[in-house]
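Researcher: Before we compare anything, I want clean individual predictions. No alignment, no superposition, just each chain on its own. First chain goes here; please echo the sequence and then give the structure tokens.
Model: Echoing the first chain and its structure:
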Amino acid sequence: MIQISVVIPVFNEEESLPELTHWISRVMDTHGFSYEIILINDGSTDRSWEVLQELSLRNNRIKGLNFTRNYGKSAALDAGFKRAQGEVVITMDADLQDSPDEIPDLYKMVKDGLDVVSGWKKERHDPISKTIPSKFFNGVTRWISGIQLHDFNCGLKAYRNKVVKNITVYGEMHRYIPLLAKWSGFPKIGEKVVQHQARKYGYSKFGLERFLNGFLDLITVSFVHKYKKKPMHFFGLLGTFSFMTGFLITLWLIFDKIYSLRNGMKVREIVDQPLFFLALVALIIGVQLFVTGFIAELMTSSQSKEAEYKIDEEINFDF
């Protein structure tokens, strides 16, 4: 097994790829590491794939995957993780804002016992429109996840190989890989302040919507972790509460009418009371939630998750 796999998602970064791969190779050769560089072309519309092909001809440790279309960063990382052979897997962005000079220290921290090391861009070269929402996002994520990291969204991270082989990254879950690792039984998570560089080529591919999507993804990953194997515990609890609420209201309406009739009081038709319709809705929703829970249980017992991306071409992979 080689020492380090560097996994890099690529989307329209043709200008930066030669400099990035040369920089990584120089760092690896200087420290005597055995390594591979896995570049995943995520549906780029520029010459990124052609440039990657040219680089792989010069250095057979540069390996490439070409998606049939743009599937997103999570899919690219998942594909790279599945093929990574290094003892330690390093991820970074392709825009040269992550420094390959951090690799030796990240590698050492993992070899010293950590399962995951997350980069912390303490000094960022980004506009305030990105830094302020990022701080809020990271604060909320720390609170919900219980993992005390300052920068969940930093692309520069290091993992023990067995960590990336035991998690599946999909949707937009790349922000929460440390959380996925913790829930998969790898709780030794550390952090390292890393150098953040100003963008040299092109422009950022992410807008402000990523923070809203990130918050929604955090709710999703928390829900999936708690109830993926036991969906009836969630839907059944809500269904029981709803059904019992409707049932108790119905009992009250029946008791109130019988009591009023026996005491010669004026009686209002049950179907004329708003509480009747509230009870009816609660009973129906309760039954629906129970049925949803049963269907979810059947699905989780038989479902196998398939890759959510298609690979058109591979370069320099021997397996």
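Researcher: Okay. Second chain, same rules.
Model: Second chain and its structure:
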Amino acid sequence: MTQADQSPSQPGTAAPIPRLQWKTPSGWKEIPPGEVRVASFKVMDTDGKQADVSVVPLPGEAGGDLGNVNRWRGQVGLPPVSEENLKKLAQSVELSGQPADLYEQDGKNPAGDPTRILAVIQRRDGTAWFFKMTGDSQLVAREKPNFIEFLKSIQFTAGEAVAALPTSSSPFAEGSLPAGHPDISAAPTSAGSVPVSSPGKPRWNVPSGWKEVPGGQFLTAKFVITGDGSAQAAVNVSSSAGNGGGVTANVNRWRKQLGLDELSGEELAKLVRPITTASGQATLVEMSGKDARSGQPAALVGAIVLQPGQAWFYKLMGDAQIVETQKGAFTSFVQKVEY
């Protein structure tokens, strides 16, 4: 039985948040979970075909079943369905001892490859939990029984109280944040100092040399910085509910992305430092290691910013030389963001 990192805390409560435990199916390889995932797996066929499995918690309704299913259908070239037809598509499964609906979409991705999506949404205590498998259509179809058994094995267990986001007195002081979750920033930016603003999102000036690119479903914004040859680094901006899992959980999540061991809150307190921003105090951390996905040397600078209503996460990660030269611009960027 495997146990995941702590998930984001629930809105408006200081109670211990649940942890996930599961039984990993044969042939599934657990990989670093990434930005908002609490669990992530890769499934590979002998002929090189692949599938991705993710577990993501989001606050509140998180778009509702109909909106999410139609978004997934669009990803494989299928037309949207009505609420009435949605009920006909739902397949009954068991998730952590409770009934849940599984939605299966089979079509082709934008590149024309046969693609299948299996997805389950279960709402527990104000959080929408997404369990999703995406990949080659035939591989996902074969892995469907394993996916269903994985869902059955899930256990939500009470975890330890998480470390909270920083205040002016201590980077690990008590505190909490209510709900809010990331959206995609669609506004393009060009090189140079360009203000970006839209309702409900921060306003910032983009440093010279940062190119905004599509960030995916759960990022508010993503910027790519290029260096000599093929060297690159990226800046990810996201937000999360509650305290977003706390400083300890999130810094350890970043450490995993660099192939580093987890540290205790006491050990991490020696590595992080408070910085002052336009909206108050924040926490900054620097680390280096090897990118867990590519195996290449990499460095990371991360910041966690406390705001009423949301926890904001900023991560600069990639080629060590780029990260070193961009560290000052990144810190200044975080410090000047207006919420």
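Researcher: What stands out in the second chain?
Model: Residues 132 and 209 are 35 Å apart (CA to CA). Additionally, The chain is about 20% helix and 35% strand.
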